[in-house]
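If you are new to this repository, start here. Below is one unmodified record pulled from the training split, so you can see the exact layout before writing a loader.
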Amino acid sequence: MKRIEDWIQKHLVPIVKKISDNFWFSIVADAVLYIVPFSMVSAIPSLWSIVRKFLPSLPDITPISTYSFGLIGLFVVFVIPFNALEKLGRKDRATIAGFTGMGTFLLCMHMVQNPQTGLAQININNLGAPGMFTAIVIGLLVAIIYKLMAKFSFFKDDSPLPDFVKNWFDNIIAIVVCLFIGWLLVDECNLNIFTLVTLLMKPVTGFAQSIWGVITITLLQNVFYFFGVSGWVFTPVTRTITQAAIAENAAALTAGRKMTNIYSFGFSRYTMIGGQACTLPLALMMLFSKSRKNKVLGKATILPSLFNINEPLFYGTVVNNPFMFIPVVLISIVTSGLSWIIMHFGFASINHVMFDMSFAPNVVSAYVMSGGDWRNVILVCVNFIIAALIWYPFFKVSDKFELGKEQKLAKDNE
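And here is the target side for that same chain:
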């Protein structure tokens, strides 16, 4: 165990840290986190739709979700170049860079004018989660061009022109280059950028939807967390995949097609009960611990654990604890694999309702995101029991070891 820990700390953790500190990775990570409030707003129509099942006369407030979560691709393509210029210290160009990202993004949609109405037609789905990957690619392209042009100016420092006027002209080349590339690819080369990006990402998204994919992703997140690296470093990848997946599921259901994306937003509600690695059962066990340290920690963390906040518990008793490594691995494999199998064979519903309230108890999230399927609530309860059975023997040994340390310390003090 010590060898594994030393190897991960020496070889893997520095790589992960280097990636997470990378300029471009951090730009995307920040953009994904910026849009979380819009995803959370979509929880309101989701809850409202459940109430409407019992009171059909209530108004439909779906547009609230359509113009919040449904536009996150558009928001992301603005935030990425905006953030890049902010981090480069060019706040004067940041807003225009964001607008350029939006313009290029819309240009790549290749809107076609309706000959009867004279209005341009647009696929609004491309503005939301289904267009997230494309938004990230275009946002990065615009950010790169603006980064290359960050120090360019038509004017000298002592120019009498006001700064905002100089800024107008200094942004022209970057704007033209970005839009020209979009025009060249879409209008002249007749490329569907959205389809192209989707095809390029297919190996990644396809693997993520397989049983091996969900097990691998869950295992990686939890193992890195065990060694002190928060699962948040995976968010730019996992959230982009799952948000697009749940949007596709919702569209498929509306069109009367079968939903196929098991690893969609909210799948973690079945594998992170109480937080990563299903630590809610562990928090409950710690309330009855013989070790004073564990009992105090259990009392302090049981309430946050009910709302999936487990950092204090995890860093206090799990991280780098050799007794806890095996249960972390087993829980990652069993809960993710079982959840995939149950959904794959139709014994529970695949998530298709956007409900971005990660602090809600898992049974609530499972019920809402499955469209009100009680079988998903049962699946959460089953995974909770499985996690408890896995945690129990390892926790007892760890608790006994901790108690021995405390008794020895007390004896030494005497």
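Two things worth knowing about this chain: Residues 185 and 191 are 6 Å apart (CA to CA). The first strand starts at residue 112 and ends at 113.
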